[in-house]
Amino acid sequence: MAWNSDAVGGISPPLDQIFADKKMCPEALFAFYMGGANNDRGAAGELTICGTDPAHYKGTIAWVPLIAERLWRIELGPVYTRGTSLTTGPQQAIVDTGSSIITAPMSVVQQIINLAGAKTTAQGTYEIGCNTTSNLPALIFTLGGQEFILEGPDYVVQLNQTCVLGFLGLDIPPPIGPIWILGDVFLRNVYTVFDHGNKRVGFAHPTKQCVNTTSNS
User: Where's the Peptidase A1 domain (predicted)?
Assistant: First the structure.
């Protein structure tokens, strides 16, 4: 699902071949719904090719143009919490469904660690008490002029009986960095549209999906 510039061995990505058939695929885009926010992780996700699925998002889509046709790299607006900005100056981000967490400059992640009262483990994760997730501050991301809110449980990952922040502090040097990587911890809380034809990424608020249950009674 990458661009030709990211292709290996000069082989066109499969989606390029699909998008070339305008009759079969009138819209050169694909969209991800990852089952909704943290409390809906048991729900199924969905990949839609050549269109979007309005059943899985509400409101308007906030569009952010690509910075370059290499990876899905966009401009990230202010990120803040409790009225305090966590970022200074322009930020860039790669939108990556292949990454499980959010990667950000260490200066930003350290602020989140401090706010959460997390401790850094020998494995490089940021551990918190699983009974404290609802007390964590909401993180607000600005994309395309819209705000997308991650509540405390939304950015925590539970590993067996341990809970860790779904962040990694990483200072990527120029010319690639400094940069964020918005992985699944962020993307499961939004509906994401990768618009290949118009060279942009769209974000919308996801709908919550009911999880079917069965009973033997």
Answer: 1-204
